[in-house]
Amino acid sequence: MSTSGSSSRPVLSRWPAIALASLLIASGLVLWLAIAAASHPSTAYGDGASIDDRALAIENELQCPVCQNVTVAYSGSTLAGQMREVVHEQLAAGKSHDQIIQYFVDRYGEAILTQPPKHGLNLLAWLLPLAGLALGLAAVASVLRSRRGISESAGPAASAEPGLSADDERLLATALEEIP
């Protein structure tokens, strides 16, 4: 039914690798969707969330323009304090999350955001890790497939110990006859 070599093996003999790859891809997609859903403010804080909770979520999405790698929520600078006040004022005025974020983007540019926007060249920042993961999995699968192919193509004779020579067999027979 099957011959040596990985290309002519039936699909049933490769099902564990196919199942593993499918499982990895499916779990990666589920994880990606879960992270995307959790990071969206409407799912992170329900409709009944307080203004303080909603303000904290917005402030955590904004970089402090004065400090490096610190969000507005945790910065001690005067400008960050003023930005927190603006967030609270706009939430009290009934503005939405997206409107408030856009307000700050209009004034400071997209660099104010802690996460790069998911469009244009910034889309690469979101897609390259996924592409790297896919390439890494493909490389691992390729190496495993080639190792399996080498061991199967060598056959059972290559993995077994070599047989005894005629002289060795004669010596073994003599030794066995001498044993009482």
Describe what you observe in this structure.
There is one protein chain. By secondary structure, the protein is mostly helical. The protein has one domain (13-146): Helicase, Ruva Protein, domain 3. It is 66% helix and 0% strand. The chain is built from 7 helices and no strands. α3 packs across α4 (78-92). It is rod-shaped.
Which term fits the overall shape?
rod-shaped
Mean pLDDT: 79
Q: Can you count the beta strands?
A: 0
Count of discrete alpha- or pi-helical segments spanning 4 or more residues: 7
The termini sit apart by 49 Å
CATH architecture: Orthogonal Bundle
Largest sheet: none
Question: Quick summary of this structure?
Answer:
By secondary structure, this protein is mainly α. It is built from seven helices and no strands. The protein has a single domain, classed as Cytochrome C biogenesis protein (Helicase, Ruva Protein, domain 3), CATH 1.10.8.640.
Write the layout of secondary structure elements.
Blueprint lengths: L10 H29 L1 H4 L6 H9 L18 H15 L4 H12 L14 H37 L6 H13 L2
Tags for this model:
180 residues, 7 helices, rod-shaped, Helicase, Ruva Protein, domain 3, mainly alpha
